Amino acid sequence: MAGKDGKGWIREIKQFYIAHNSDRISANAQALWHYLMYKANENWWNYPLCLYIPEIAFALKISQTAVKRAREELATKGYITWESPGGNKSARYYVLSRTNAIYAGQTGPKEN
């Protein structure tokens, strides 16, 4: 997502707030989206991001239930996709480009 000029992620953040002006999302969903962007950048935009709900809740200082609600809100509004392998395994997250940028994992989980 960094792009050739290194500013792709800045465009994504800008587009996030442009979209947010017309289609508001909750504060927890905003925090989760920023956390996922941070983790994606830390992972060099290689997907999936494998994260546990308790890890996210601790990082954002919100409840695990609030993380799940925020995750569903972001997925419903097209900011992310995610999949759960079940059991005690970490969920897999994909941050979707709002600027149609091409980067690793943009399309989300593979269909079986």
Label this structure with key terms.
3-stranded antiparallel β-sheet, 3 strands, mainly alpha
Structure, explained:
The chain has a single domain (8-95), classed as Winged helix-like DNA-binding domain superfamily/Winged helix DNA-binding domain (Arc Repressor Mutant, subunit A, Orthogonal Bundle). It is 46% helix and 11% strand. The chain has four helices and three strands, in the order ααβααββ. Strands 1-3-2 form a three-stranded antiparallel sheet. The model is unreliable at 1-5 (pLDDT under 50).
In round numbers, the mean pLDDT is 86
Strand order of the largest sheet: 1-3-2
In the CATH hierarchy, the architecture is: Orthogonal Bundle
Q: What can be said about the biggest beta sheet?
A: 3 strands, antiparallel
SSE sequence, one letter per element: HHEHHEE
Percent helix, as a range, is 40-55%
Number of strands: 3
Q: What is the gist of this entry?
A:
The chain has 112 residues and is mainly alpha-helical. Helix content is 46%, strand content 11%. Residues 1-5 have low confidence and may be disordered.
Layout: helices, strands, pairs:
Blueprint (H helix, E strand, L loop, with lengths): L7 H15 L4 H16 L6 E3 L1 H8 L3 H13 L3 E4 L7 E5 L17
Antiparallel strand pairs: 1-3, 2-3
Helix pairs in contact: 2-4, 3-4
